[in-house]
Amino acid sequence: MPYGKEAKEEMVKLVQGNKLKVYIFNDDRYGRSVGDIYCDKIFVQEHMLKKGLAWHYTAYDQRQELATWEKEARAARVELWAQSNPEKPWDWRRERRNGS
Predict the structure, then answer these.
(1) Per the CB 3.0–4.6 Å rule, which of 13, 83, 99, 100 could disulfide with 95?
(2) Left, alpha or beta for 79 (phi > 0: left; psi -120 to 50: alpha)?
Protein backbone atom coordinates (compact mmCIF):
# COMPACT_ATOMS: atom_id res chain seq x y z
CA MET A 1 0.00 0.00 0.00
CA PRO A 2 1.41 3.40 -0.90
CA TYR A 3 2.85 4.99 2.25
CA GLY A 4 1.59 2.10 4.34
CA LYS A 5 5.09 1.23 5.57
CA GLU A 6 5.85 4.83 6.52
CA ALA A 7 2.51 5.24 8.27
CA LYS A 8 3.00 1.99 10.20
CA GLU A 9 6.51 3.02 11.29
CA GLU A 10 5.24 6.38 12.55
CA MET A 11 2.32 4.73 14.35
CA VAL A 12 4.60 2.20 16.05
CA LYS A 13 6.99 4.97 17.09
CA LEU A 14 4.06 6.91 18.57
CA VAL A 15 2.15 4.17 20.42
CA GLN A 16 4.39 1.17 21.05
CA GLY A 17 4.69 0.45 24.75
CA ASN A 18 2.28 3.23 25.68
CA LYS A 19 -1.23 3.14 27.09
CA LEU A 20 -3.95 4.16 24.68
CA LYS A 21 -7.37 5.63 25.32
CA VAL A 22 -10.02 4.95 22.71
CA TYR A 23 -13.26 6.91 22.72
CA ILE A 24 -15.80 5.03 20.60
CA PHE A 25 -18.35 7.27 18.92
CA ASN A 26 -19.86 5.08 16.20
CA ASP A 27 -19.92 1.71 14.45
CA ASP A 28 -19.24 1.22 10.77
CA ARG A 29 -21.43 -0.79 8.41
CA TYR A 30 -19.53 -3.96 9.36
CA GLY A 31 -20.17 -3.48 13.08
CA ARG A 32 -16.61 -2.35 13.83
CA SER A 33 -16.07 0.41 16.35
CA VAL A 34 -15.08 3.86 15.11
CA GLY A 35 -13.42 6.14 17.61
CA ASP A 36 -10.75 8.61 18.61
CA ILE A 37 -7.40 7.32 19.84
CA TYR A 38 -5.19 9.13 22.33
CA CYS A 39 -1.67 8.18 23.36
CA ASP A 40 -0.12 10.20 26.18
CA LYS A 41 -2.63 12.99 25.49
CA ILE A 42 -1.70 13.05 21.77
CA PHE A 43 -4.69 12.78 19.47
CA VAL A 44 -3.39 10.06 17.14
CA GLN A 45 -5.59 10.97 14.15
CA GLU A 46 -4.44 14.58 14.32
CA HIS A 47 -0.80 13.52 14.55
CA MET A 48 -1.00 11.20 11.54
CA LEU A 49 -3.02 13.63 9.40
CA LYS A 50 -0.69 16.54 10.09
CA LYS A 51 2.36 14.40 9.26
CA GLY A 52 0.82 13.50 5.90
CA LEU A 53 0.63 9.81 6.76
CA ALA A 54 -3.14 9.37 6.87
CA TRP A 55 -6.23 10.21 4.87
CA HIS A 56 -9.37 11.74 6.34
CA TYR A 57 -11.99 9.11 5.53
CA THR A 58 -15.16 11.16 5.35
CA ALA A 59 -17.46 8.17 4.97
CA TYR A 60 -17.31 7.68 8.75
CA ASP A 61 -16.21 11.03 10.09
CA GLN A 62 -17.05 14.46 8.72
CA ARG A 63 -15.45 16.55 11.46
CA GLN A 64 -14.06 19.75 9.99
CA GLU A 65 -10.85 19.73 12.02
CA LEU A 66 -9.79 16.41 10.46
CA ALA A 67 -10.45 17.81 6.99
CA THR A 68 -8.46 20.92 7.88
CA TRP A 69 -5.45 18.92 9.10
CA GLU A 70 -5.43 16.89 5.89
CA LYS A 71 -5.81 20.03 3.79
CA GLU A 72 -2.86 21.67 5.57
CA ALA A 73 -0.67 18.58 5.04
CA ARG A 74 -1.66 18.53 1.35
CA ALA A 75 -0.78 22.22 0.98
CA ALA A 76 2.61 21.63 2.64
CA ARG A 77 3.13 18.58 0.36
CA VAL A 78 4.37 16.42 3.23
CA GLU A 79 4.89 12.66 2.93
CA LEU A 80 2.15 11.08 0.81
CA TRP A 81 1.00 14.53 -0.33
CA ALA A 82 4.37 15.10 -2.00
CA GLN A 83 3.13 12.76 -4.74
CA SER A 84 1.31 14.34 -7.65
CA ASN A 85 -1.56 11.84 -7.49
CA PRO A 86 -1.50 9.75 -4.30
CA GLU A 87 -3.62 6.61 -4.37
CA LYS A 88 -6.38 6.38 -1.78
CA PRO A 89 -5.90 3.32 0.44
CA TRP A 90 -9.52 2.20 -0.03
CA ASP A 91 -9.04 2.30 -3.82
CA TRP A 92 -5.75 0.41 -3.50
CA ARG A 93 -7.43 -2.33 -1.42
CA ARG A 94 -10.42 -2.57 -3.76
CA GLU A 95 -8.17 -2.99 -6.81
CA ARG A 96 -6.25 -5.82 -5.16
CA ARG A 97 -9.42 -7.46 -3.88
CA ASN A 98 -10.90 -7.41 -7.40
CA GLY A 99 -7.70 -8.78 -8.89
CA SER A 100 -6.85 -5.72 -10.96
Answers:
(1) 100
(2) left
Tell me the sheet residues that pair with 27. 33
Q: Write the single-letter amino acid at 66.
A: L
Strands of the chain (E only): list them.
Answer: 20-27, 33-39, 42-43
- Over residues 32-41, the pLDDT tens digits come to 999 999 999 9
Q: Supply angle C-alpha 55, 22, 48, rounded to 5.
A: 25
pTM above 0.90, yes or no: no
CA atoms within 13 A on the CB side of 42: 14
